[in-house]
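User: Could you check the structure of this?
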Amino acid sequence: MGARSGGTPDAAAASRRPVIATTSTDPHDLPFSVELRHPDDGDVVAAVAGELDAATNPALQQALLRALREAREVLTVDLEGVTFFGSAGVTALVWLSQHPEAHGKHVRVIATSRVVTGPLELTGLLARLDVQGMPPAGPSTT
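Assistant: Sure, the predicted structure tokens are below.
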């Protein structure tokens, strides 16, 4: 009797477990988008919108690497449209800034929302990255 058939309780439980896909062949399945813009100066702006979570990290890194490869000198990662900035967003920015293809190029981040600047501040990345567009500080408690 050693092997279990597909109709056992263990098999049924396994079939109910959620599957987390870390990559997708259809960009419409992702909870974020990256639009590349090419200003006249040869630099690239990667406008990111949506939710950046752990499941989307590989796709986000690939989109940002594509943008980095297209940038001549400066890649601006515009995070104005980001509605959730989890560890995937933080990881992607660190990975991008340390990527060998970033050597000799400048990576700039536009962060206008506390959704993005909060995690960057907590991880110390505000001091390590060129972050622009910071939202005003909250009301003073003094």
